[in-house]
Amino acid sequence: QVTLRESGPALVKPTQTLTLTCTFSGFSLSTSGMCVSWIRQPPGKALEWLALIDWDDDKYYSTSLKTRLTISKDTSKNQVVLTMTNMDPVDTATYYCARQTDYGDISYFDYWGQGTLVTVSS
Amino acid sequence: SSELTQDPAVSVALGQTVRITCQGDSLRSYYASWYQQKPGQAPVLVIYGKNNRPSGIPDRFSGSSSGNTASLTITGAQAEDEADYYCNSRDSSGNHLEVFGTGTKVTVL
Asked: Residue B66: CB partners within 8 Å, gap ≥ 6?
C-alpha cells in the first residue's frame, strides 16, 4: 500500500525559506522508474509542477522557479525534502508530493499525499 | 516551456457523454495523463499512457490522442464525476520537466 504524507509549517513569513518533507511508504525510491514530485495549487487555481527527484538521484526543476528550489532525498528514511527560498505571498498554496512512475514515454502521478496548505504572510 | 490548454468549464446531463480536451505541443511527443480533483481533495489519476485506467477507476473513463490534442471522455456521466479535471504531460523541451493543463470544471446536470 503506497502512501505519501507532506509535513511542514502552515505559516511562513515573506523572504523566509520553506522546508517541506514528504514521508512515503509502500515503494522504494531506489527502484528504477520511481520518482517523487512536488506540485502546488494556489487557492482556486490550477496545479503547478515544481520539482522531481528520481531513483538515480537526478533532479529537475520548474523553469520559472528553479533558482529558488532544492529537492533532495533520504532513501533510508523514505523521505523527500523540498526547500523554497525567498517566500512571497503569491506562494501561498497547497503543496502536494506525489509518486511519479516513469517509463520513458509514459509518466504519471499515481499516488498523492493529502497536501499541506502553506500561507505566506507577515 | 510548454503549455497545456483546457476549456475552463463544461457541463453534461446525467448519463450522457462528455469529452474534455487538452491542447499543447508536448502532446505530439508525450502521452497525457488525466487527474480528477474534487473540492478539498488531492487529485486522483484516472487515465495514463495510451488509454490505461488505474485499478478502481470506472471504465466509463477513457482517453485518446491525436496530434497536439489529448482527450478524456466520460461515457454515461454520473453525479460523482462532477469535479475539476487536469491533464499533464512531459514538457516538450525533453528535459524531463512536467506541465499541467489549465483545468476543466465538469458539471453534471
From this structure: none
Q: Which residues of chain B neighbour A112 with C-beta distances below 8 Å?
A: 42-44
Say whether B80 sits in a helix, a strand or coil: helix
Q: Which residues in chain B have Cβ-Cβ distances shorter than 8 Å to A39?
A: 100
Spatial neighbors of B49 by CB under 8 A, at least 6 apart, are A106, A108, B31, B33
**Cα(B26)–Cα(B32) distance, rounded to whole angstroms?**
9
pLDDT at B87 (0 to 100): 98
Is A64 in CB contact (< 8 Å) with chain B?
yes
Query: Do you know the residue count of chain B?
Result: 109
Residue A12 has pLDDT above 90, yes or no: yes
* A106 band by pLDDT with thresholds 50, 70 and 90: confident
